[in-house]
Every structure is written in structure tokens, then in C-alpha cells.
Amino acid sequence: ADADATPEEATKLKESADIEEAKPLYEEYMRLRKENNIDTPMDFDCFLRRLQRNAAKIKATYKCDNVTFHVHVSDGNVVLKPKIEKKKSA
Fold first, then answer.
1. Based on the number of CB atoms within 10 Å of its own CB, is 37 exposed (0-12), middle (13-18) or buried (19 or more)?
2. What is the pLDDT of residues 47-72, one digit of tens each?
3. Are 68 and 52 in contact (CB under 8 A)?
């Protein structure tokens, strides 16, 4: 399902300022996957779509302003851990 992007998602991906921030995260994610013998291929666009979808879900669920992700290895699995930044009161 992640391999197929809607035209709207594709446009959003190309225009997103988050792309530059996601590149180092993707590189670390893929490096750790290789170190942990996880050979399932994932291209950058697929990674970015997953990141954006997860961030949107987390923002809606926790009503937060921003979500950042960090790569984490747990029991030989490479995962993205979200860090939630709550809305600031005025």
C-alpha cells in the first residue's frame, strides 16, 4: 500500500520542507537495518510517506504541534520512535 502514492501525496512529498530533515533520518534508518541484517528494501519516497502518515496520526491523536522521529534499535528491530511536542499555551 505504501508503494502507491495518490497524486496529492506525491505533490505534497515534492513540496515538503521536511524532505531535507528526513534524509539523514532515512540514511541512519537504512544503515541500522543493514547492520541488523534486515534486507527488506525501502526507498526514500516510501519512507517519507510513512513518516508523514505517522506524524499526521500522532498529531491528531495527541493534539500536538510537532512530532519528530528518532531511529531506535529494539530486539534487533529498527524502529522510529516519535517525540511529541505539545501545543504551547498563550
1. exposed
2. 999 998 999 999 999 998 889 999 99
3. no
Look-up: residue for cell 534486507? 39
Distance, first Cα to last Cα, the chain: 40
Q: How many CB atoms lie within 10 A of CB 71?
A: 18
- Cell readout for 12 is 505534497
As a whole number of angstroms, the distance between CA 31 and CA 50 comes to 18
Q: How far is CA 4 from the centre of its chain?
A: 16
Only one residue has cell 513540496, namely 15
Q: What is the CA radius of gyration of the chain?
A: 14
Place of cell 508523514: 52
